[in-house]
UniProtKB/TrEMBL annotation:
It comes from Ramlibacter monticola. The keyword Signal does not apply. This is DMT family transporter. PANTHER family: ACYL-MALONYL CONDENSING ENZYME-RELATED. Keywords: Membrane, Transmembrane, Transmembrane helix.
């Protein structure tokens, strides 16, 4: 038990950082910095710093096409989640994002050759029932995403599931190159979408940060770097199902902080749908018995 304390604590720190990340992103937006620009700058700093620490990872990234797809998936994950939490109800966004176990069931079949089991289909249906409950408007129309934040949250969750599947497919490449690809994708895709928004007139250009703005940006960059290190430390020392269960604490941190600060409401439908979605996620993470009967 003592051997697990430090890895579990590291994963909780990672979940805490991501669960509270909505606040600095919104604070930066109050300083005129769109979440996409914040994401691009933060991950550019992380990318550059990681190249200095692990220079051999860059050539491997450049010569491995599979890592380019990983970069795109990780980039879309950050675009979807970070943008959504700045414009939508934080609790609803996080819950819709956590539909990712359902997406994983669908993606693992064509990409990894893992046919969905009856239990996998059950988790998929449970998660979809939760999403329908969260999106239900009381009988007025179909339970379908109606806001940009909801669409972004769903897209981010799908991209995160794709990221996890790709990480499994790319297990033969070094972990450093995978991390570098994810940092690079986060910066490049967020910057590209932000630039497109500027050209269309829907997103303001990146302003010159001053004082508190730079402080928040550096705080967020440092937090994400620390969170990634904690994730690498914890996930490499614990069973995958334990990691997944601990990471669900992100929902708790995001919900409590956003409700306390007035960025979300815990409506009955949200609570009911959230219970179904988290139930599906916990079911997906629960340890399975092997043929020999050991967990």
């Amino acid at each position: 038990m003592a051997d697990r304390a430090a890895p579990v604590a590291a994963l909780v720190v990672n979940a805490f950082v991501w669960g509270l990340s909505w606040w600095p992103f919104r604070a930066l937006q109050d300083h005129g910095v769109h979440a996409l620009w914040s994401t691009s700058v933060i991950y550019l700093v992380a990318f550059a710093g990681f190249v200095v620490l692990r220079p051999a990872a860059l050539p491997e990234l450049l010569r491995t096409p599979g890592l380019w797809l990983l970069a795109a998936a990780a980039g879309m994950t950050n675009v979807g989640f970070n943008w959504a939490v700045t414009i939508g109800d934080v609790v609803r966004v996080v819950l819709l994002f956590y539909l990712m176990p359902a997406w994983a069931v669908l993606l693992a079949w064509p990409m990894l050759g893992e046919r969905p089991s009856p239990a996998g289909l059950g988790r998929l249906l449970l998660a979809l029932a939760g999403v329908a409950t969260v999106l239900d408007t009381g009988g007025v129309g179909l339970p379908w995403p109606r806001t940009l934040a909801e669409w972004l949250a769903l897209a981010g969750g799908f991209s995160f599931a794709l990221t996890n599947v790709l990480l499994r497919r790319l297990s033969q490449v070094t972990s450093a190159s995978r991390v570098l690809a994810m940092f690079g994708g986060g910066s490049l895709l967020a910057g590209a979408v932000a630039t497109g928004g500027v050209l269309q007139g829907s997103i303001a250009a990146l302003p010159a940060l001053r004082g508190a703005g730079w402080g928040l940006a550096l705080l967020l960059a440092g937090g994400f770097l620390a969170a990634n290190l904690c994730l690498q430390y914890g996930a490499s020392r614990l069973p995958a199902h334990t990691t997944a269960l601990v990471m669900l604490s992100e929902v708790v941190f995001a919900s409590l902080s956003s409700v306390a600060l007035g960025a979300a409401e815990l409506a009955p439908r949200t609570l009911a749908g959230g219970a179904l979605i988290l139930g599906a996620a916990a079911w997906s993470a629960w340890p399975r018995k092997t043929a020999a009967g050991a967990q």
